[in-house]
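Summary for the funding panel

The consortium committed to producing paired sequence-structure records for every protein in the target list. Below we show the first two records in order, beginning with the earlier of the two.
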Amino acid sequence: MPFAVAFANLKLPQKGTVLLATKKGRDLGALGRDLDKKTGGALARAMKASKFEGAAGSTMELLAPGGTDLDRIVLVGLGDPAKLTATDLEKFGGTALGTVEKAAGTLTLVLEEMAGAPFKASEIAARAGIGMVLRAYTFDRYKTKSKPAKKAARLTIATSETAAARRIFDELDAVAQGTLLARDLVNEPSNILTPPEFARRTKQLIKLGVKVEVLSEAQMKKLGMGSLLGVGLGSEHPSQMVVMQWQGAAKSKKPLAFVGKGVCFDTGGISIKPSAGMEDMKGDMGGAAAVTGLMHALASRKAKANVVGVIGLVENMPDGKAQRPGDIVTSMSGQTIEVLNTDAEGRLVLADAMWYTQDRFKPRFMIDLATLTGAILVALGQEYAGMFANDDKLANQLTDIGNAEGEKVWRMPICDKFDKMIDTPNADMKNIGGRYAGSSTAAQFLQRFANNVPWVHLDIAGTAMGSPKTAISKSWASGYGVRLLDRLVKQYYE
């Protein structure tokens, strides 16, 4: 059962479990202090005994409290209200749910007015609720014999501004559902989520008002997409390109374009990967998943912008028909590429997808997302996506938004010297640049297909899959990129 959040008037519940937001310094709020009196001061004594101070992320539990009919009281630390960010509020909600997600009965989070906080009570409640929705996500559809224990299906947030909280929550939830869609896609095994199946699932967006086109291999061949098609030659599953369009503004306005790498499974091809950890390559379509989730979010909240999402869907397999190291392919742009390593395949997919996007739609800007290089994990770990850009304004916008949304980016260099590293005497370029600056040379390769459109490349290899668990994400797939790019559109381009 999907997790649901309800909002109710601000008061203490009589039964079930009550969660109390506790500010730094053991400040329970007026209702919390009333509850402490009913328990004969048990809350105050428990806080002192456990050294609970109300720090962000801390919790304290009191079972079957005397003087009440409650099953339990849970104190959830909020920290200093004056220093709260939107991300902090979501993590607070996730932490709160985490303490009671397997509890039975009525669950109520009491959120009183917070003097000094930079948010209204309605947004505090809504953000906490969204944190719960993101935290509640699980991917267990293939379990049959040992299903996890049932989790809470509903939690009520008591606030002084219920109607406003619900309005804010509904808009935020549209984005959250896009994030969960991206998680679902990345978590799916590759025997299920083949390129044709991925394309089929994008058609579910039609009911939200998104126009969806699927280009076949024959259509892509006619367009000259030899770079993308070469990657999928060894697969039994045909390659696809999906074009998603959302029109929320006047037809005369140029669209914003987002392009995603969708390698539904990556063996490395003839340049086959080591077997250890290869199962993670089911997530090598994290960029395509993020673009699909973004289109879902924008359409769900009726974004006032024209947006195009293009994803190239392939499977990279070794086979008698697979492309070989040393092959030369011709991209849609007319530029030729010497394929020296078939495991540097994502950039080959993006080369044609990006060229097609800028050529057909003439977008205001183009942002691509790809689980592109292991080198970016060496450079940045899993806290930041690597960002490469030919446009400072767009790069700065993404940096600021990433810090605010908790989906951080770090700008990495591209330059003429890196560009020369992908030159080859045998073709216009090669698809690898050598041992050094692997993420930068991959970005330089992609820049050759941006065709002077304002462009950003996000290397999300460290953030889209297998990323560290947080208070709002316990999934192997994080859904990274949906929230970042939705806010970019909302804040700067609507």
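The next record, for a separate protein in the list, is shown here:
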Amino acid sequence: MKFSIKLVLSTMIVLALALGFSGFYFVNYVFETSLDREVGQALDESSILSFAFETAALNVPLKYSVLPDSVVEEIASKLEMGGQSGGRLLRIADEEKNILYTSSGFTSDEGLLPQTDLHTKSYRVIRAQDGFYVHTCVAINTLNRILYLETMKDVTEVFTERALGFSLYRKVTVVILLTGIVIMLFIASLLTKPIRLLTKATRKMAAGDYTYRARQVSRDELGQLTGDFNRMANALEENICKLEEEIEAREEFMGAFAHELKTPLTAIIGYADMLRSHKLDEEKSIMSANYIYTEGKRLEAMSFRLLDIIVAKQDEARLLDVPVGELFAYLREMFAEKKEMDIRFVYEEAVVRMEANLIKTVLVNLIDNACKASEYSGVSPEPGGKAADQKGSDMAGVPEASVSGGSTGVVEVTGERVDGGYRIAVRDYGIGIPEEEQIKIVKAFYMVDKSRARSKNGAGLGLALCAEILKIHHSGLQIESKEGEGSCFSFVLAL
């Protein structure tokens, strides 16, 4: 179905519903108002008749101590003939609610009598063969008797007016809708002309003609849309080459990523399996072999998971609440055998939302890079120097631990609460990174010193993977570095 037809139909449906509901509400409101007025008049007339009956009963001769039925019928007959247009419709019942007098034409049943007592006044709207009536019932206490007076007031005219109102409104609605359809068809044709031109342009571009541009025929929002479309087409034509280059670079990255990470992991797993398959005298060797094998398998699984994340660019990681203490305990155990470095862990207890294995991968990469930078510097900060200054009053009272032994370099791993989350930082006092290189190092396969990195089996993937993992956690890698003084890599996670 064409958009213009949809526009006409939707407009007409809305208009029909609006007219229908408003008409129903208006006619029904007038009807309810008129009916309430008639009910009020019927109740007032009933009260007047009951008062008139009581007044007439006061004129009964004193010889009657109790109002007799014959007098009741006489008074009721007079009240009936006192009405306008041929009399009133009324009915009188005694204490036992037996009918004593009934007007000719009074056709209602005794539905109100059981509901009425001395202190109540009841009414209902009923439908008879010849029309609609307001049926009322009220108790009369006079001359030692309790009687019940019923009246019927003709309100057929009110219902007739409602029917006529609905009929007239339906005719008016049909005329308005037919006229609206003709007008909306013309308006829709004018409004959708820019859309038709845009559709033609999109088909041209889909067929490969990126030079075709849509003709702008108005200056309204659709005209602006046409202009925006043409500008988008210009940008699209300019970006096609860039996109092709990015696709080629991504394919190269995927191949190099799989090769650079799979090869060392396979060697680790093979070496660990060899240690597991031989009986060794030392228990520590077996424990180390099990650790290597377990971590190797974990890293292999992690590599493929990271590969899927980078390829698909989809946020599939499940973020869970993880205690920071567990994360730092893993890092201390991981780097416990690195005796040549003084690795200090200072953190504030907290529960952070993360995918634990992915964040472990980030921190292992950052700490490993910090250790390598410190090894090449050959410098260790003095007590009370920069390393000591990092543990100031803000971190007082938080857990602290270090992994050290004859160290030549210091690496500090800190965790603390900040505005907006939890900040984890890895600081070294190594060779630092040139300022012009700091923006580039998070790119895949980029290495500041390729010869040094290759000597340590580096592939230039660590920081690129860290950046991708932190994107999944809605965070980013912050880099602070100065040549000869060291570097600090940090990121913030949500609490």
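Regarding this second record: The CA atoms of residues 308 and 314 lie 9 Å apart. The longest helix spans residues 3-58.
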